[in-house]
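To the team - phosphoenolpyruvate complex, inputs and output below.
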Amino acid sequence: MLIIMGLESPREDINKVKEKIIEFSCTPHEIPGSSKLAIGITGATHLLKEEDFQMMHSVQEVVRVSKKFKLVSRQMKSNDTIIDFGGPTVGGKELFIIAGPCSVENREQTFEIAGQLKEMGINFFRAGAYKPRSSPYTFQGLKEKGLEILDEVKQKFGLKIVTEVMNSQSLQSVCEVADIIQIGARNMQNYSLLEEIGATQKPVLLKRGMSATVEDLLLSAEYIAAQSNYNIILCERGIRTFETSTRNTLDLNAVPVIKQWSHLPVIVDPSHGVGIWDKVPQMSLAAIACGADGLMIEVHNDPENALSDGYQSLTPKKFKELLNKLNELAPIVNKEMKLYENANSL
Ligand code: PEP
Ligand code: MN
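Output:
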């Protein structure tokens, strides 16, 4: 259930509504929109009746939220959530681009790629220190050492760091370095981890599980939002289907569906979605054309010798060519490539 109040409602009236919600052993969540203030209610909302709130001061409307997910739903907040990183934003007009290698392999490789991306105007650098690999015999990431290298990248290049957390044991140390915490496809339904990450109040990049429906993804986002953390970026990264010609099937249908059902920003990871580097540019353009707010792309200086996901990684040169194409596409879909303002050479 959702209580709609005027943005200028007296604090006393807002608090009375919240107290009433708590009286019913439910939890109120204040969500200010552009013109209205919504108070979302989670818990045993079937015990509440519309009439309990309709007569209260400053209450304009009481709405039953029809979806299973509530706080992240469009019904709860009609305007798009824009996450501001002190300059760059995601969810608004700006095309939001995250780029970098699959894994931190060593200091030299990481610095080389970070330096080239910085030159292109990229603000958000991705690289895994903790790697969830399908086989236990493949490279598992440099772990703490990888985080140290990412911290150096942050200091040296002024890049913001996007890196994955795999479990609660390393959450604290990942939080110290990451500007955005990545939750990988394999952990999308690790609900206790979602709650812990939500409670850190750090921005989160939540990747869709490989067998998860859009509803499952939004319900996972709901776990984070229920901790009053709305800094959630959703990421379509391909799902498992019967098709074997590509690593996964990039489900671009999900983008307009998520946009309709949720106020949260959504980006696409065509690298994992396709799994083959030469298909990544086409699917990147398709993702932006169908309404994604941005992209996450794997870039490696030496893909053939990469310790993970080399086959789906673009070289910096190919990535730069893609950026140029995205720059042409952006205005057609009412987006802007702000990163060009930071670029040293293109
Ligand atoms: C990654 O981003 O490198 C990764 C492991 O992605 P996913 O969780 O989508 O497989
Ligand atoms: Mn990868």
